[in-house]
Amino acid sequence: MNMAGQLRPIVAVLAVLVGAVYAARAEEANDYPTAARAEYVYGCMKANGESRQSIEQCSCSIDVVASIVTYERYVTAETALSMSQVRGNLGVQFRTSEQANSAVNDLRRAQAEAEVRCF
Prior knowledge:
This is DUF5330 domain-containing protein. By secondary structure, the chain is mainly alpha-helical. It is 85% helix and 0% strand. The protein has six helices and no strands. Helix 2 crosses helix 3 (52-68), helix 3 (52-68) packs across helix 6 and helix 4 crosses helix 6 (98-118). The longest helix has 27 residues, at 3-29.
């Protein structure tokens, strides 16, 4: 068997592995449920005007955020932001929690990057 014949199985295995890696990355980049993306775009459009241009910009924005922050981290940040508005002891716990503040800061950095890229 010549050298080319010996390399074919190795190249085939490598091609399969590379394909699997790209498929896994695509899944990671698209781990936000459609409803969460739609809710983000809706809120973004309410804040930035309800025009065709804002649809494009807000859709771009959630794509950038999703590429930077995992969905789990996004949910943590959104929950912290929502609960920090509650009055009393419960709201204080979310406003002073290091974990909640860290998640919110990550989300805000991602949104700032999205602002630069999309608007």
